[in-house]
Amino acid sequence: ENVGEYDYTVKIEVKGQALSQEYSFLGVGSGTTYYTGASINGKIILELSDIPFFKTSFYGIKNPPSTINMQLESKYPSGAPFWKAMESSSFLYEFARMIAEIYGPSPVVAALMDADINVQNQCARALKTMGATATPDLISALKVADTTYQSKISNILIDIGEAAVDQLLATMEDKSFNDRKNLVFILGEIGDPRAIEPMIALLENPDYQIQNVVAENVKKFSAEAVDPLIAALKKSDPDVRKKASEILGDIGDLRAIEPLIIALKDTNSDVRICAAQALGKLQDHRAVEPLIVSLIDKDSNVRKNSVEILGALGDSRAVESLIFELNEIDPSIQICAVEALGKIADPRAIDTLITKLQDPDTKIQNA
Predict the structure, then answer these.
(1) What is d(CA 246, CA 275) in angstroms, rounded to the nearest whole number?
(2) In what order do the strands lie in the sheet with 9-25?
(3) Residue 250 burial by Cβ neighbours in a 10 Å radius (0-12, 13-18, 19+)
(4) Do the beta carbons of residue 128 and residue 156 sit within 8 Å?
(5) pLDDT per residue over 146-190, tens digit each?
(6) Beta strands 51-62 and 9-25, pairing class
(7) 194 with 164: CB under 8 angstroms?
(8) What count of other Cβ atoms lies within 10 Å of the Cβ of residue 328?
(9) Whole-angstrom distance, CA of residue 301 vs CA of residue 91
(10) CB 216 within 8 A of CB 202
(11) Which of 37, 118, 242, 294 is deepest in the core (most CB within 10 A)?
């Protein structure tokens, strides 16, 4: 080509060596040499007016196989699999790294959608190596990417790890960034505790999908998330208090017992229900007496929920209160009380349950 038409030229110099291997063939003899492997060494050189201003090298190898097909393999060096060595070489990685160094990461991020899977993989590898430098471009692409592209970008950011956290958190606070679910997932997978409180703050988002994604990913931090979640039980937004209770129950850390017992008196009935359910998951008998108190809650759903959890805890201290619940006006609570007493299996309940067999409600009889 006429190099005068271009700003600069790219030279790719490759030197190869055939790798011979001796194989034995029945009826042909042994020790016959065949060239069935290849190694290459290469350089990528950018020149401006014939002056090199960027140079990097690469290497590749295709080892001889353990067996060969005599009709398909060549015993001449010219038939060695140099192209296979090139395909498996670090050429694409070094080329992507070179492009990123000159133009920034953006074109390499775009190349993640190349039709060639090897191009995708080597560009991803180069971006991971760049770490925090590549993060802004990856996040920008995440904003507009389709599902497949988002998955590739997310995996790279996860592999970059802690170096990407500051920029991910800054983006999460950006009100123009609409889809925060991917950011939450990425931060949850990275597992840097700096992300815990900003993620919990997203529980205030009215989008239930975001709340659920936050809940699933905060759980990944396990014990590290307990104190911030306990603090969230005091937030003004009842949805935050509710979700915090649920997450604490799933994490299962006993530090949450006393704060959840306090939450049984929350002004919001849904929060009281979630707190009781969390205490049920924690299976700590400190919750029995407070749950018995909840049986006189003004909200029937709270009462019903407390009956179910007391049955699951199986503590005999609840028997008398559960027997009393058999007189509830709400038949569904009566049924729950029967089932709870059955789980505790205390002799004090037998006569009362036999009496209940005369109840006109067949559902209660069956229970």
Answers:
(1) 7
(2) 9-25, 29-48, 51-62
(3) middle
(4) yes
(5) 888 889 999 999 999 999 999 999 998 887 777 788 999 999 999
(6) unpaired
(7) no
(8) 18
(9) 65
(10) no
(11) 294
Phi, psi torsion values for 15, nearest 5 degrees: -115, 135
Least Cα distance to 220 among 192, 261, 244 occurs for 192
Residue with tokens 């937030």: 235
Residue with tokens 């080329």: 95
Torsion sign across C-alpha atoms 317, 323, 326, 327: negative
Q: Which one-letter amino acid corresponds to residue 3?
A: V
Please, which residues bridge with residue 41 across strands?
15, 59
What is the token pair recorded at 241? 């208090």
CA dist., res. 96 & res. 84, Å (int):
19
Q: What is the CA radius of gyration of the chain?
A: 33
Contact 81, 42 (CB under 8 A): no
Residue 139: closest CA among 118, 117, 100, 165: 165
| Residues 333/341, Cβ–Cβ less than 8 Å | no
pLDDT grade for 33, boundaries at 50, 70 and 90 = confident
Tokens of 217: 């990913």
Token pair recorded at residue 318: 């609840």
Q: What percent of the chain has pLDDT over 70?
A: 94
The upper half-sphere exposure of residue 286, i.e. CA atoms within 13 Å in the direction of its Cβ, equals 14
DSSP 110-136: HGGG-S-HHHHHHHHHHHHHHGGGTHH
Contact 62, 85 (CB under 8 A): yes
pLDDT tens digits, 196-247: 999 999 999 888 888 999 999 999 999 999 999 999 999 999 999 999 999 9
Please, are residues 361 and 331 in contact by the beta-carbon 8 Å criterion?
yes
Q: Shortest CA distance to 56 belongs to which of 17, 5, 11?
A: 11
Q: Are 34 and 19 in contact (CB under 8 A)?
A: no
User: Considering the entire predicted model, what is its pTM?
Assistant: 0.80
For residues 294 and 302, the answer to whether their CB atoms sit within 8 Å is yes
Rounded Cα distance between 19 and 36, Å, is: 6
